[in-house]
From TrEMBL:
The keyword Cell membrane does not apply. GO terms for molecular function: ATP binding; ATP hydrolysis activity. It comes from Povalibacter uvarum. It comes from the Bacteria. Keywords: ATP-binding, Nucleotide-binding, Transport. This is ABC-2 type transport system ATP-binding protein. Pfam families: ABC_tran (PF00005). PROSITE patterns: ABC_TRANSPORTER_1, ABC_TRANSPORTER_2. SMART domains: AAA. Residues 10-239 form the ABC transporter domain. The lineage of its organism: Bacteria, Pseudomonadati, Pseudomonadota, Gammaproteobacteria, Steroidobacterales.
Length: 318
């Protein structure tokens, strides 16, 4: 066990996927997932997220490149690699006529694991599904079906769990429950890779964030570092007397005036040593511009993401 600590649990090197149509969905992707982390893979529609996951899970063959799961090559050592992985796919696909319990047992067996009813019971209890164990899946609500998909993916005790858009179309309460559940899975040692279109989800959950766009990884970063690095802050000064325009003396500052002239908005870089706020306030005082109130706002991960994807589109199209 000790020799594996510190090594990535998933390693992807120079992965290329060209579909039969000739479309290149992955253009040489490198990615290392750390043991025990929650990694969020973000990207617009068609960026290649599902293709990447499907290759690591052995569902899609890469055109070239290498991927390993817990040291096992996903092609040459497929069975061992796959047994380490649980996958909750984007589309709900369950055996509708089976009971929850039967589906779980069958799924575990598929991975060559002997029966372990105690484990299955724990998974179902953790997902608040125990009282539904004898129900046919088709009789469950959409949210419950989603939980069953997760339970099924955990039936063979995987160390790695892929969640492909786990909370798409799920109500707020269930989303919160699922976040809670993902956290407790991580606490039990499972490594989690999730894709999401809800940036809020990544902001809430992830330790690290990867952004993929048009088949290329644009960025991989610790979430807090990312937010610190790319985040901008805004200081909004609510003025005593509205301004018609920004005075010429302030022209060289990063200032905007709201349409009604009531708010002066100053944008500054959180990374730079000096924010320039003190000198701005001094200058406003000298110019006799008083304000009633001030507030600061930090850019959200959503804003960072949108600007990243935009800038990579610019870069890619050049
Ligand atoms: N079997 C296939 N044949 C040809 N092209 C495909 C196939 N599967 C996916 N693609 C294309 O590859 C690209 C990447 O698709 P993929 O499903 O990996 O994206 P995604 O990032 O998961 O998108 P979404 O967020 O919409 O789920 C898309 O342009 C898609 O149309």
């Amino acid at each position: 066990m000790t020799e594996t600590i510190g090594q990535p649990i998933i390693s992807v090197k120079n992965l290329v996927k060209t579909y039969a149509s000739g479309f290149q969905a992955l253009k040489g992707v490198d990615l290392s997932i750390r043991r025990g982390e929650i990694f969020a893979l973000l990207g617009p529609n068609g960026a290649g997220k599902t293709t990447l996951i499907n290759i690591v899970c052995g569902i899609v063959n890469p055109t070239s490149g290498v991927a390993t799961a817990d040291g096992h090559d996903v092609i040459t050592d497929y069975r061992a690699a796959r047994s380490k992985i649980g996958l909750v796919p984007q589309e709900l696909s369950t055996d509708a006529f089976e009971s929850v319990w039967a589906t779980m047992r069958f799924s575990r067996g598929l991975f060559g694991k002997g029966p372990d009813d105690a484990h299955l019971e724990k998974v179902l209890r953790d997902l608040s599904l125990w009282d539904k164990k004898d129900q046919k899946i088709m009789a469950l609500s959409g949210g419950m079906k989603r939980r069953v998909m997760i339970a099924k993916a955990l039936s063979h005790e995987p160390q790695i769990l892929f969640l492909d858009e786990p909370t798409a179309g799920v109500d707020v309460e269930l989303r919160r429950d699922m976040w809670e559940m993902v956290r407790s899975l991580r606490a039990s040692g499972v490594t989690i890779i999730l894709t999401t279109h809800y940036i809020e989800e990544a902001e809430e959950m992830a330790d690290r964030i990867g952004v993929i766009n048009k088949g290329e990884i644009v960025l991989i970063e610790d979430k807090h570092v990312l937010m610190r690095k790319l985040g901008r802050k805004q200081l909004t000064l609510h003025l005593q007397t509205p301004l018609q325009q920004i005075p010429a003396q302030l022209a060289n500052r990063q200032l905007e005036l709201s349409a009604d002239g009531n708010d002066l908005i100053y944008t500054f870089d959180t990374q730079s040593d000096s924010t320039g706020i003190a000198s701005l306030l001094r200058q406003l005082n000298e110019l006799g511009i008083d304000f009633k109130d001030l507030r600061t706002e930090e850019s959200s991960l959503e804003e960072i993401f949108v600007s990243l994807v935009r800038s990579s589109q610019v870069r890619l199209s050049q």
